[in-house]
Design brief:
The chain has 228 residues and is mainly beta.
Length: 228
């Protein structure tokens, strides 16, 4: 078996540089834009929007709508419907992503009836959001064979979703909401609030012009021992 350390330092440096430059070129050229054939498979892909390379699994792009100036990171999977569903091509989009959004690498958006992400939403890596989930109505039937329960999901404009968040069916997240990393969210989340935990709960809200509970004071200047 070939061992990289069998190469001389000079040869390895040359080879590493060539591989890294090639990969950068592949990622730049392989990104999906509104003007290429893959971009035209979407219901719409707005001006200056891009899906980074390598993409995740994409299924039924015709029912996915992405606004302008939105960046979808690498390895983000987006799917609409199930493998055996015959979807109406004239039906409205199922997954809608607004303008100026950023979706971090490794996320998954799995839709059947409606996932809506507003404008100016920033999402950290490894999000999982779905509008349907396995049912467990009949204890005698394997869960995978039971028709799923479903309810639409929306994420309000101006929100920030931390790393590793799970958003379950029927969730409505208001505008300018922060969801802490690792939270599992379900239900209605009011505007201008902070959600954290499993299950996610509101831990702070903006009320009457101030945060409730108040924010802890923060230093406005670096400490004396801060490196200059």
């Amino acid at each position: 078996m070939f061992q990289p350390d069998s190469l001389s330092p000079r040869v390895r440096n040359l080879a590493a540089g060539a591989i890294q430059r090639s990969w950068e070129w592949i990622c730049a050229v392989g990104a999906t834009s509104p003007d290429d054939a893959h971009g035209r498979r979407f219901r719409s892909l707005g001006e200056r929007s891009m899906l980074a390379f390598p993409p995740g699994q994409l299924f039924n792009e015709h029912w996915i709508e992405i606004g302008a100036y939105t960046l979808v990171g690498p390895h983000v999977s987006m799917s609409v419907g199930m493998w055996n569903e015959d979807l109406d091509r004239s039906a409205p989009p199922v997954i809608r992503i607004g303008d100026r959004c950023n979706i971090g690498r490794g996320g998954s958006l799995v839709g059947r009836i409606g996932i809506t992400i507003g404008d100016d939403v920033t999402i950290a890596p490894d999000l999982y959001v779905t509008d349907h989930n396995h049912a467990y109505d009949d204890v005698e039937v394997p869960i995978a064979r039971q028709w799923p329960h479903e309810a639409p999901v929306s994420i309000g404009s101006g929100s920030w979703i931390g790393a590793g968040v799970v958003i379950l069916p029927g969730t409505t997240i208001g505008e300018h909401v922060t969801v802490a990393a690792g939270s599992v969210v379900r239900g209605d989340i009011p505007d201008r609030s902070v959600v954290a935990g499993v299950p996610g709960r509101v831990v702070r809200r903006w009320r009457d012009g101030a945060w409730d509970p108040p924010l802890e004071p923060r230093a406005t200047e670096p400490p004396d021992d801060w490196p200059s």
